[in-house]
Every structure is written in structure tokens, then in C-alpha cells.
Design brief:
With 453 residues, the chain is of the alpha/beta class. The protein has 3 domains: 46 residues; 190 residues, 2-Layer Sandwich (Endonuclease, Chain A); 159 residues, Endonuclease, Chain A, CATH 3.30.870. It is built from 18 helices and 17 strands. Strands 4-3-2-5-6-7-1-8-16-14-13-9-11-12-17 form a 15-stranded mixed β-sheet, with helices on both faces. The chain has a two-stranded parallel ribbon with strand order 10-15. The chain is globular and about 60 Å long. 50% of the residues are buried.
């Protein structure tokens, strides 16, 4: 009776309280009512997508730098950001956008090797061999130098491409933690919620961030050749300033959640020189009360006046996000979506076509890049750029722990826009075709099952 009562509560209250696609909510409710004993454990492992925050929103981010830019888009996107208790926009300097994997790797090594006190690294995949071994050796060397080095890897992602020798890392003094390993955390209700964030912070002053995992294919061709695959096109950057301290705070919270340790007190006003550019850390995921990135994207698309540029490897939006893009195209906003012709996830490629057809019918342009494109970026009206780890699919927007950085400095926003344009120059325009019956059925099943439950 207790199990049945709990299942009824979950079905009638908890399931419907969290934002999810109506068909997904109905599916969970029906399954819980019909098969409570079998489905309730599954719901506790896979159905819960918000967790209790481990620090109050009021205390988490106390730095307050406000954007002086008077652009309508910038000001109005700040309003929902403030309501959702995101860290206030803060200063940064010396932004370096990595044009290719070789430059990204060099920047990463420079940050690790240049640290004087601490190196903190969070990633989804850290592969063994090639690039992974090279970075692991750097981490071990810095730990032996007396630098505090911490490595946080997602508990599932750690095993996708193999992982470095944790024992040798620990023996060298590197602190290693897995974020919610499924076999040890399945009863905590978070098995389906993965940490997809990528960031490296040195001395709370330098931040390396973007979409790259630590594996051969994300960096340079000669390194990728070790695994027999060409290098992917990806996007990352590094910067200095207060924004890096905010990333440090986010890492501390993720580390505390993974290790059940305490949260250190970080300086409110760091000693680093303030930058002249303004950006904002946008953490999204189960640890946020709201769906932060999703809300900012929908708001930005509705407010766009001139152009929207989107680059993502996987495009499986929910109806509201898709509607915000199609309405922008219909009112005359230039909408460009750049993605790989064939990604590394075949199911995502099949599921995207329904949304792509709607976009092209509304007047948007969809571009297919000839090789694997793993970059994640959105540029709106040359006033706002969002760059980081999140894909434009429902897993990234509603389930994963993700990290993006919002850039408000016009010159830097335009630099990201030019990077997208350069990739777009080698892409081919997508032409929509009426789907066959089996395609409609397959797309519907994929959208209902694979990307919403």
C-alpha cells in the first residue's frame, strides 16, 4: 500500500509539476498508475530532473557587476537572468577564441602550466591515449610541483572512451572525483542527469571553456589520427578576470556535490585586474531551480530583431523553442542554423528532420557542414553570444548539467559570429523534402521515447 500511495503521489503531483513534454508526462503517469511496483523505481532513477540545490541562490553568487549596455536585447535578457538567480554579469579580459583544436590544446596546456596555486578541471569525457594522456601527464606534473589539482569527470562519460589511470593520477597527488557514478548513485534519483560541463580554472583567475571533451577527435588532425578519425570542428575559448572566479564557484559546488565535502569560502572581490568587457556565467541543469539556458534562448529568439545564428551538433528542440525560432524567421529575422550533415549520433540525425522542415518552411536557412561539427554557440543581433557545452536538444536543455558563457561585448560577439560564418562558408544549404510515412512514424517515436522520457 505504501508503494501504491507513493506512486499515486508521484503520478498526480511530482510528475506534472516538472516541466516536460505533455506526451512524456502522460506516459509516466499512465505507467505509474498501471505498474507502480515496476515503474516507480525507474522513475526515481530516470524521471526526476531537478535536485535540491546545495547552496541558497542568494548566497551562491554575490558579485554584482551590471551591464551598462543599453541595447534592448542585452537589457531584457538580463531581466530573466536576474530572476533566475544567475550570477550577475561580470568583467573579463584577454578573450582568446580558439580557431582550431591545436590552438585550443596549446591554450589548455598554457593555463595548466602557468598556474601558481590551483588547477580545477571538469569534463564529460577524458579519454585514455593521445591527447588524454598528454593532459594527464601535465596534471600529474603540476601536482608534483605542489599545485592543488582536482579532476572532476562525469560518472558515465568517464567510461565512454576509456579514462586515464586514476590510480597514477591519485598517486601523483591529483584529487579525482566521479560525478554521480550510476552504480553507486542509482537510488539517489539522478542516474539520468549527467554533468556535461567543460571548464578548466587556474588560480580562480583563468578560465578555459567550451564544447571540447578531452579526447583526440576534439583537437588536432594528427592527434585524431591516432584513433583513426578526423578531427572534429569544435569551439572553445579562454579568458581572465572575475568571470573565471564565478566559474570557480560553480566548480566548487559541483565538486561538493560529487564528493559530499564542504564549500570553501571564495573571495568576493578577487585581486585580479578588472576587465573592460562584460560577460555572464550561465549554468543550466538539475541544480538550477529554473531551466536557465532554455529560458534565455526562448527570450532571446523572441526579442531578436535582425539575425540569429545557431551552431549545434544536435538539434531536437521542444515545441516552444522551435516556435520561437520559426516566428523569428516569419517576422523577417535572418535565421541560420549550422549543423553537421552526419553527426556521431544517428538517432539525433533522424529525429531532427521534423524541426528542420518547420524551420525551412518558415524561411530559416539550415546549413549542413560536411564533417562532424561539435561546436555549440548562439549569436543574436550581434549583441549577445552564448558559447559553451550545451546542445540544442532536450537532453542538454532539460536534463544535463551544462555551462555556457553569455558575452555582451559587441566586438567579442562579432568575433564569434565571424567564426560561425567561416564554418558556414564550407557548408551546403539543406533542402527539405516531404517525409515518407515510415519517416513520420520513426521521427514521432524517436521524439516521444528517446528525447523526452
Amino acid at each position: 500500500m505504501v508503494m501504491v500511495g507513493l506512486a499515486i503521489y508521484v503520478a498526480t503531483s511530482h510528475t506534472l509539476h516538472l516541466r516536460r513534454h505533455p506526451s512524456a508526462a502522460v506516459a509516466w503517469v499512465m505507467a505509474l498508475v498501471l505498474l507502480p511496483y515496476a515503474v516507480l523505481p525507474l522513475y526515481l532513477m530516470f524521471g526526476i530532473r531537478k535536485v535540491k540545490s546545495y547552496r541558497s541562490a542568494a548566497k551562491r553568487y554575490e558579485m554584482t557587476t551590471r551591464v551598462s549596455n543599453s541595447d534592448v536585447l542585452t537589457v531584457r535578457t538580463q531581466q530573466p537572468a536576474a530572476i533566475m538567480a544567475l550570477p550577475a554579469a561580470s568583467s573579463y579580459r584577454q578573450l582568446d577564441i580558439h580557431e582550431d583544436g591545436a590552438r585550443a590544446l596549446q591554450a589548455l596546456q598554457n593555463i595548466i602550466n602557468g598556474a601558481t596555486r590551483t588547477v580545477d578541471l571538469c569534463t564529460f569525457v577524458f579519454s585514455r591515449g593521445g591527447i588524454g594522456d598528454e593532459i594527464a601527464q601535465s596534471l600529474k606534473r603540476r601536482a608534483r610541483d605542489g599545485i592543488r589539482v582536482r579532476l572532476l569527470i562525469d560518472g558515465v562519460g568517464a567510461y565512454l572512451g576509456g579514462h586515464p589511470d586514476f590510480k597514477s593520477l591519485s598517486a601523483a597527488g591529483v584529487q579525482v572525483a566521479l560525478f554521480v557514478p550510476p552504480l553507486r548513485s542509482s537510488l539517489r534519483g539522478r542516474t539520468n542527469l549527467r554533468n556535461h560541463r567543460k571548464m578548466v580554472i587556474a588560480d580562480s583567475e583563468c578560465l578555459w571553456c567550451g564544447g571540447r571533451n578531452l579526447a583526440n577527435e576534439y583537437f588536432k588532425d594528427d592527434a585524431a589520427a591516432l584513433s583513426g578519425n578526423p578531427a572534429w570542428i569544435d569551439l572553445s575559448f579562454d579568458l581572465r578576470g572575475v568571470l573565471a572566479l564565478q566559474a570557480q564557484q560553480q566548480f566548487e559546488q559541483d565538486w561538493e556535490f560529487a564528493t559530499r565535502g564542504g564549500l570553501p569560502e571564495l573571495p568576493i572581490n578577487p585581486g585580479s585586474a578588472p576587465g573592460s568587457s562584460i560577460g555572464q556565467l550561465v549554468a543550466s541543469g538539475p541544480d538550477q531551480v529554473d531551466d536557465t539556458l532554455y529560458t534565455l534562448l526562448v527570450s532571446g529568439f523572441f526579442l531578436a530583431r535582425k539575425n540569429i545564428m545557431v551552431v549545434t551538433p544536435y538539434f531536437v528542440p521542444d515545441p516552444t523553442l522551435l516556435m520561437s525560432l520559426t516566428l523569428a524567421a516569419r517576422r523577417g529575422v535572418t535565421v541560420d542554423l549550422l549543423m553537421p550533415k552526419k553527426s556521431n549520433h544517428r538517432l539525433a540525425d533522424l529525429a531532427r528532420h521534423r524541426a528542420l522542415r518547420e524551420l525551412t518552411l518558415a524561411g530559416a536557412r539550415v546549413w549542413f557542414f560536411p564533417h562532424m561539427l561539435h561546436a555549440k554557440a548562439v549569436v543574436i543581433d550581434d549583441e549577445l553570444a552564448l558559447v559553451g557545452s550545451a546542445n540544442l536538444d532536450e537532453r542538454s536543455l532539460f536534463l544535463n548539467y551544462e555551462l555556457m558563457v553569455a558575452f555582451y561585448e559587441s566586438a567579442d560577439v562579432k568575433r564569434f559570429a565571424r567564426w560561425i560564418e567561416r564554418q558556414q562558408n564550407t557548408a551546403v544549404l539543406y533542402r527539405a523534402h516531404p517525409p515518407r510515412l515510415w519517416q513520420e512514424i520513426a521521427e514521432g517515436l524517436l521524439l516521444w521515447l528517446a528525447f523526452q522520457l
